[in-house]
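Subject: Re: docking follow-up (zinc ion)

Dear J.,

Thanks for your patience while I sorted out the input files. As discussed at Tuesday's group meeting, I've set up the holo structure prediction with zinc ion included as the bound ligand rather than trying to dock it afterwards. The sequence and the ligand SMILES I used are pasted below, so you can double-check that they match what you have on your end before we go further.
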Amino acid sequence: MPELPEVECVRRTLARRIVGRRVIDVEVRRAAVVRGKVTGRALLVGCVLEEPCRHGKHLALTTGGDGPCVGVHLGMTGSLCCEATEPADSGDKHVHVLWKLDNGSMMSFRDPRRFGGVWTFTTQEAMAAQRWSALGPDALTITPKTLARRFGSRRGAIKAVLLDQTLIAGLGNIYADELLFACGLSPMMPACRLTTDDHAKLTTAMRRILRRAIDAGGSSVRDYVDGHGRAGRYQRRHQVYGRAGLPCTVCGSTLAGNIIAGRTTVHCPRCQPLR
Ligand SMILES: [Zn+2]
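The structure tokens for the complex came back this morning:
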């Protein structure tokens, strides 16, 4: 599932191909994936695209000022790609929305499992108020102080708290596990037991891991591709995610797999002891 680094990679690669382009036409092949008004204007026809925005795992196609805005969530298997010409397989039944740009290129929203979607808003401001306001601060920019304030009274397991998008936006199962391993913190530890040192350590490690993942083009675990249709490489550097039962890369102990907040959680019992 695309998390912050993957969505950021989509945003950056997409930006190179769409900024300054005018949307000529839109084809909605599956209306159910679009929430909000489904008109040409609402879907940006006639508008010039600006730099796309991101908050957590959410992406937005913006047109500046009072222009309309389209929010995109990639869900589990969604992708948003821009190609120079019509996609080779123009009958691909998983492509739900197709935008035609003024240089002939095509931007497509594809989502086989349909957990993602496209949301239309009258303006970027409306989108922020109606949709992004429910999200916590972005994981790439959150400060130790804010993290402490948001996690301080939570009795839930730190793993579950990291996944709660209303507390901190952008982390999913992959980066939460990698982050806790990097910090030597047990995923089972109640968030309220974190010390000031832990808050600082978490914030620093979070930025480092997320930035490295962005530089590596994100993690392609299943079918993630960036805005140019390319897979990421960060999955080769995962230390714990997807490695339950295998030896810890640091101490050699067998990595444990548990279910926390309904998600498979992998950690090293020796490097990440429960305090
Ligand atoms: Zn270990």
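A couple of observations from a first look. The longest strand covers residues 95-101. The domain at 144-267 is CATH 1.10.8.50 (Helicase, Ruva Protein; domain 3).

Let me know if you'd like me to rerun anything.

Best regards,
T.
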